[in-house]
């Protein structure tokens, strides 16, 4: 089950569907700050504690010896990657739910369409579709028995 969901998530993340992307942008903008706080304030502190009291947001590589030298802040980058994965997975679940509803609606519409009375029948001689009221087949000209 989980392997299936992860496989579908990978397919979702790799395709370029515009609607999926638009929904992702909207969801990402709406929940970005919440997810950012979840990562920075809830997930990373216990993870840092487990890894030897590391504060991920302060992890960086200094590019000089001076205190104000430029740095590569890879800890903040890690936080952003985790935030992205959470938002992408939430969007994936939303799209999956929408597709499930769409499939159910299509099945219901097909079932409703099947209830409509037929307007054609099959010619017993040439197997062509002909109107129900036909007494002679327009394709093979065979005379058909009429139901009176």
Short description:
By secondary structure, this protein is mainly alpha-helical. Helix content is about 60%, strand content about 5%. The protein folds into 2 domains: about 1-115, Non-ribosomal Peptide Synthetase Peptidyl Carrier Protein, Chain A; about 115-148, no CATH class.
What would you note in describing this structure?
The chain has 2 domains: 2-116, Orthogonal Bundle (Non-ribosomal Peptide Synthetase Peptidyl Carrier Protein, Chain A), CATH 1.10.1200; 117-148, no CATH class. Helix 2 (18-50) packs across helix 3 (74-114). The chain has 148 residues and is mainly alpha-helical. The two termini are 58 Å apart. The chain has helices at residues 2-14, 18-50, 74-114, and strands at 61-62, 71-72, 120-122, 129-131. It is rod-shaped, with a radius of gyration of 31 Å. The strands form 2 sheets. The chain has a two-stranded antiparallel ribbon. It has a two-stranded antiparallel ribbon with strand order 3-4. The mean pLDDT is 83. The protein is built from 3 helices and 4 strands.
Mean pLDDT: 83
Count every helix, treating DSSP H or I runs of 4 or more residues as helices: 3
Low-confidence stretches: none
The largest β sheet comes out as: 2 strands, antiparallel
Give me the CATH architecture of the largest domain, please: Orthogonal Bundle
- End-to-end C-alpha gap: 58 Å
Number of strands: 4
Name the shape in a single word.
rod-shaped
User: What do we call the CATH topology of the largest domain?
Assistant: Non-ribosomal Peptide Synthetase Peptidyl Carrier Protein, Chain A
The CATH first-level class of the largest domain comes to Mainly Alpha
Residue share in helix = 55-70%
Enumerate the strands of the largest sheet in spatial order, edge to edge or round the barrel.
1-2
What does the radius of gyration come to? 31 Å
Order of helices and strands: HHEEHEE
Count of the domains: 2
User: What structural category do the secondary elements indicate?
Assistant: mainly alpha
Beta-strand percent range: 5-15%
């Amino acid at each position: 089950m989980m392997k299936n969901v992860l496989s579908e998530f990978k397919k979702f993340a790799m395709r370029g569907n515009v609607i999926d992307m638009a929904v992702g942008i909207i969801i990402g903008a709406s929940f970005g700050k919440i997810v950012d706080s979840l990562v920075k304030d809830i997930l990373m502190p216990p993870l840092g504690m487990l890894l030897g009291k590391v504060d991920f947001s302060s992890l960086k590589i200094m590019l000089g010896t001076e205190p104000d030298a430029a740095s590569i802040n890879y800890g903040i980058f890690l936080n952003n990657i985790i935030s992205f994965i959470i938002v992408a997975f939430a969007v994936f679940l939303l799209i999956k739910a929408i597709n499930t509803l769409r499939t159910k609606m299509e099945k219901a519409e097909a079932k409703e369409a099947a209830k409509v009375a037929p307007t054609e029948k099959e010619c017993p001689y040439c197997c062509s579709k002909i109107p129900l009221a036909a007494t002679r087949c327009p394709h093979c000209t065979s005379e058909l028995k009429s139901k009176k």
